[in-house]
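Protocol step 4 of 6: structure prediction from sequence.
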Amino acid sequence: MHTTQTNTTLTANRLTDRHYKECVTKRGLCPEWIAVNCRSMDIKEASERLGYTAKSAGIWLEGVNGFGQYRPNKPWKSLDEKKAPKYRTATQEEYDAMLPRHPDNPLYWQDLEALKALCYQINGHPCLVLTEGLFKAIAGCSHGLPTVGLAGVEQGLTPAASDPQGKRYLVDTLELLARAKFGWIIAFDADEHAQTNKNVVAAQRKLAYQLAKFKVPVYIATGNWSAAEGKGMDDYIQANGDDAFRDKILAKAVNFEIWERQFQEDDADNKTLSESSFAAQIAEDYRARLAWHVANKAWYWYEAENRRGVWGEIPVEEAMSIVLTELETRTRHFSSKFVNGVLTLLKAKLRVNHWEVRKGFICLQDCVLDVNTLKEYPHEPGYRMLSQLPFKWADRNVGCEPVKEWLLEACEGKADWVQVIRAGINATVTERGGELQRFMELVGAGGTGKGTLLRLVQALLGRENYAITELKQLEQNRFETAALYGKKAVFITDSERYTGDVSTLKKLTGDDELRHEKKGIQQTGSFRFSGMVWIAANEIIQSSDYTNALSRRRLSMPFERVVPQNERRPLEKEFQPYLPGVLQWVLEMPALDVAAYVGDTNKLVPSLGSFSTEVLLSTNPLADWANDCLYYDPNAQTQIGDNGQSPELFLYPNYCEWAQRNSHGIMTKQRFSAILLNLLKSQLNINAAKVRNKKGRFITKIAIRQSGQDFPLLISEKDADPDADFNKSHANPVLTPMLTESIDSADFQSGADLLADSNASDTTNQHYLMNTTSSDNQEDKSAQSAQSAPARVSGSTTDSTTQKQVSTKQRMIETWDNKSALGEIVLSLDSAELQRIAQEFNPEQVQYIKDAANSVWRLGANSLADYNGELVYIWECGQSNDVRIGTKQKAGAKVRRAHLRPWLGI
């Protein structure tokens, strides 16, 4: 190792003999300045400093402000590089200007007034020299000329990618010195970096233009010497001396405004710049960062507002600013018509017709996460992410025990309720709300914890990933749904004060199309909300819709434990450090469990099933009447009748009398029969039917309770004596209402008749009757062809999983002749459940099931598909018959649409 005699403490163990000779002997640089700004590195240390594998030992150059570069002994070329760079910077390190460290004066760059006294003066103004590289800056500083070094001619300005508007600004150090009113002399290298290189000329113009904005003089000395006199200013000083550099180079520096006039002729030529060619170049340069969202009619920028991995909507002015910035580097003569023309062309070149976020992934601050495998991937524009959770996945090791303890406390020790909440949060984060078609309804007085739970979910998502609205706004403001686009959750706050129509809420929670209309912008499309709706209220939602459409969507949870005011804590602040742990906890819940706890809550959690019964009775006057005044009788046929007839014999008069006695409004007879059938069939799973004979219209399976009769209440009471023959014959087939497995109410709302003659009533009733087929009958039916329905099955097993399979199989059998309905059921099942059910069908029937699913399958990007028996992912699909498929990580070839079928796993 080489050490100098002048200052051994600075040079010891810093430079090898080879590097000392290169810097001091060959380049002629001052040993003291070299000693404090340069050090030798072997491959291992260089790799650690760069953040990637170095392939050669070399010199690390770093100034007083911390930014540095690596000069390898043997430059190497990476796969994506056209030539081997002489200097390298550390990965993910923001570049800056370099200020050579003074060997004796630590305040050299801090005492700016003293620094101005050392600067080269032009017209009495102190000017700093601006050049390329730390070696050249050291040459200037060591000869009494304060000099700032850049990593390259383009590195005086920040990269456009780091700013949402695509603008380039002075790097921090240059801005600091420009604000301090230092003038500038730009002295880049000679030969190809002189006047003839258009790229270098453009770089100097952009840099000088930004410096001049601070009202300081800017001069150009580049080109004042030839390559024969030395390539860089350090070469020139070594060959000719620093006095010659002052007198012949700096003294001839040209004012920027005067220097720029020589390019006016070129600028005039640029007036004929083609809109199409310029737009094509912009599109090529910005394709990975800029996109035109066709349906939303808005520009989107990748990593807008420094949100890593996320696309964000930007104003049209920012897109215009990107075009302006690029134009200003080429010409200063253009019109607004030219700019608008370029923007119009860019909309076509950068359009995204259907913005589809990559399903099964979520974005965090440090990675993109596969929610199924919990595997991490780096951020990429191709995921099309619109949201990011506000923390790092790497911080999850802290766990979330305090949060789980509080949830159990808020649920009064009911662990299964905590699992329901966990599943609801999972469905929110993974955006499965639309798929599961449920919304979370938290009901309770103030101070019971429901608000804290909502704020926990909101903190987990981050403010930009959820929307807060009111039912009145949601239902009556046609622009409100556009604000929900791209959100993971919607929180509704005023439900107890709203009793009107809830059609938009039903669409929102039913995976239906929603308007995507912004005020002042023509609607161009619609979208489906895939997130979760959370409602917190002191009272249960009331609405004018008494069908199952709303009741089957609501997952109601009562919060009854009021925490005294003096015992309440700032839980949101306490829970903040545990958010990554909460995310891991909810994502570790298997997808089947999430679907079960959210979709089949009443089965898995009987206590919530009982509360759902209370909700039904308190929100549906017709259900309340039916519970009080009717009972189940499989052999009964009760006439509907007209108002004014005997309430003891006719259904509608009985209802009218009850409604008047309980101060409820009376619905029309036509609506009464449709809503009653919906209640019985879809919400209580009673296979009632509306029939007609010569005597009038009847509802089957129910009878009017007479005075003194003690049959179980239709909805709220369980069988009092299941062993009694009488009660057996009158038993309610559904003791807990099956609010989550029902058919859509439209069939009953739109059909005023739903009539059959008396001769056909037995056949109709037999079609809906379940769990009554004998084993002999089943054996006979199992031998039928694939096009005929298999045998109905009995649901006598007590195992919950088996019960679910039986119920699903029964539904499949009941819709066997309706191929579209059968296909919808099949596509709604997860692969594991479908595989278990398919084992009970013969091969011909399984093929029929596959055909049914294929008949209603809608092909879309990111779908799973079956291609010649193999699982593939859909990457691109449009109006043509060609579809691009591939693996989960990589796109592949295009195939014909007809060769693809839904992936069922059977």
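Step 5 (inspection) to follow. The chain is about 40% helix and 15% strand.
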